[in-house]
Amino acid sequence: MNTQFFQRIFALILFFAFLTSSMLIAKADEGMWIFGNPPLKQLKEKYNFSPDQGWLDHARLSAVRFPGGSGAFVSANGLVLTNHHIVRSTLAKLSTPERNILKAGFYAPNYTDELKCPDIELNVLVSLENITERIQTVTKSASDAKTAEANRKVEIAKIEKESLEKTGLKSTVVSFYEGGEYWLYGYKKYTDVRMVFAPEAQAAEFGGDYDNFTYPRYALDFSFVRVYENDKPVKLEHYYRWSTRGAEDNELIFVIGNPGSTDRLRTVTQIEYQRDISNPAALKSLTRQRNLLVKYSNLGVEQERRASDTISGLNNTLKRLNGQQEGLLTAKLMQQKVNEEQDLRKKVAENPELQQAYGGAWSEMGQAYANYITMSKRISYSNLASSQLARLALSIAQYVIEIKKPNGERLPAYRDSNLESLKFQLLSPAPIYSDLEEVLLADRLQEILEELGYADPFVKATLNGRTAKDAARELITGTKLADVNFRKSLLEGDLANLEKSGDPLIALALKIDPITRELDKFSRENFDSLRTSAGEKVAKARFAVYGRSIAPDANFTLRFSYGQVKGYEVGTTLVPYKTTYAGLYDRAASFNNKEPFDLAPKLLANKAAVDQSVPMNFVYTADTIGGNSGSPVINRQGEIVGVNFDSNIHRFVSRYAYTEERGRAMAVHSAGMLEALRKVYNAGGLADELEGKK
Hints:
This protein is α+β, with helices and mostly antiparallel strands and about 700 residues long. The chain has 27 helices and 20 strands.
């Protein structure tokens, strides 16, 4: 009998049972709220807690956005807490064949020992302004959706440039509620970021993919970096104090972070497109890339080191995306979304004014997606995204072309407000491995050939009559883009300089750039304009019917979530709110300390010193999703009680619907982190800094 097979079947049964029941219960702790509209009424009514503006400002200014995740200032000297898996790629870049700190862990007891991270930019949201009226004013007079989109683009570029020149902040116009609101966000940037501490990967990822998205859990998924300015640790007024007690059962907690994306307010048309087209295509492509990298990593120890970070990320993405897709394939979830849309449309239809203004929004959204589907496959596959060198080539080519245009006419990534961050990434000194690049590029070229066919313009431009392997070999062996100085010289030159560089990847980028622009133009004119216009109408209809009592969908901007530390029931089983070090050691012993349930060396060596009653991980009801990784979990006093790192299987559908009965987010416990620092990693100085003793 295949035990693992039946375990997976049982997990799916529980998952579907959860879907059936969770949609019928109250959604008390739902919402990833923007700081411009915090859930004060809900907090007062349910938890009798009323944070004042000072509390909210301190929480916002102490939070940090990482590339792809979140973090928190935790000392006056620029110390930042995040997840190990958020800095995993940085640890891989800092590793060498002789010193693999991703595998062995890292601790810098002194400032001079801290390692400079090659390409991390951290952002702190220091200002926010509602500019909805200004944006919508320039679109009201437009004769059609295309003109409105063009006016909107120019005005956004103008606003961002004005803010950049006035404040010096990284200035970004952010859309909420599908265009129902627009805000101007000003970020303080930090680019001198240095590694302070990371446990061994095995301690952070104990249980591997088997334990990913499961609970109970035993992961030390935390790390620390430090922010510098003028070659000195930055001095901070706003940072979270550390709770040595940590989270306790039924305690009210808050998660301050940057959730990546949700689609809870999307129309049924949009969700059906994900279910039927985009999700299956993504699963197919990502699975292919993961399998390729696993094959590459099996070639040797060094290949495994080079590929392990990307494999880990792909496994995580695939597991989450498969869960989301399974949710969409259940009639219950889709019926919930249909019912929600029908309820809103019914209320709009009952009001003649609303019906006249917004009643056509849903058919307009349908037309937008009907237009997009005709070109979606070409748009999806006309890129070489899996190759870092190919991405660099296209970005450099587009930078040189776009920088000569007026700011308002450029592609969004090349506006003045984004240029510093863009160049910081393009000039990263992180190592690039040509053998891995060749493998990735060859497979991507073969994939687009299989999907689009020989006659496609992008395929013709990239292969030029060659096989995928031959093309990749010529492009990667001939390019000099791995050299930072060469990239810098190209960025500082003009188009003629690019054309005479002789670099094959640059030549290819110049060849495919017109094709990508053609596809981008089609998308802007036939999809983006209609989708934005229709989305804005749906948002206004929702505001008119429900007010702003619903949080906007996540879009990787700073949010405020709340909930309780709380276990849950699965069938007849009661799942505890916390796990302890005793559970970690028992789980390792139960698998005879065999991979992926083997103890990291320092955890094994220091077992006798560890207080096994100390909590490691805990779960809570606050609303989170990917992007919240590394988010501080704080109590009423604004103290760190944990750091968010995952969610359980019952939360897979949180992209589309909040779930509370069994759905939980997970965090590493603040007391558990201190125990690890002091008893396992001999990092007492770092623990003292967290507790304010240093």
